């Protein structure tokens, strides 16, 4: 029997994109999943859209925050109710290819992998952008330099690791979670296939200087690096980001 996969989706004013995201879950060739959506006090029609899907498919469950908690807090609320062996992540503006879970879960079971990620395709309203093909393995130390694990591609084994939650910060919550897991395992492993689509024009794209600000705070306040180590890793991170932007 297929192990249960709990898919964690935060939503906030996502009425223009969330239907596509949910449809990409419904279209999975792997059928034993639950989709846990926590809405973060949306002001548009997002909640009504989710309710329509949940009414038709009882694998979809909706939770509604009483106050805005941010993506990390919303994901954590869904994780706390998750029942699956595997915890997967998909935001309400991103998409999966229909074989994503089948390929990735098979890879994790066959290779006894606790944390995996995949390659993915960037896209916007004008069409496809670049392919993102991160390295095949990554350690804790390597991830400090650059977060190569796309949140929309990540899956961890909650039976092996226990439930792991995101730090309650407004940005870089996913990187915090991967580092938390990588403290306890040697490597995260990539499935070298493009299995997801990352939307880059949904309003979630951040000003580059704000991103750098959040990254600095992440090193200092979440990872708790000293000032010298923070400067070192921040400099490498910023340089890698500059090179990526030039491609």
Question: What descriptive keywords fit this protein?
Answer:
247 residues; alpha/beta; Spore Coat Polysaccharide Biosynthesis Protein SpsA, Chain A; 2 domains; 9 helices; 40% helix
Give me the secondary-structure topology.
Blueprint: E1 5-11, H1 18-26, E2 33-39, H2 46-56, E3 60-64, H3 70-81, E4 86-89, E5 95-96, H4 100-111, E6 115-124, E7 127-132, E8 137-138, H5 140-145, E9 155-157, H6 158-161, H7 173-182, E10 188-199, H8 208-222, H9 227-246
Parallel strand pairs: 1-2, 1-4, 2-3, 6-10
Antiparallel strand pairs: 4-9, 5-10, 6-7, 6-9, 8-10
Helix pairs in contact: 8-9
Q: What structural class do helix, strand and pairing data support?
A: alpha/beta
Overall number of structural domains: 2
Distance between the termini: 44 Å
What is the architecture of the largest domain at the second tier of CATH?
Alpha-Beta Complex
- The tally of strands reads 10
The portion of residues forming beta strands comes to: 15-25%
Which fold name is given in CATH as the topology of the largest domain? Answer: Spore Coat Polysaccharide Biosynthesis Protein SpsA, Chain A
Q: Uncertain regions: pLDDT < 50 for 5+ in a row? A: none
CATH class of the largest domain: Alpha Beta
CATH homologous superfamily caption of the largest domain: Spore Coat Polysaccharide Biosynthesis Protein SpsA, Chain A
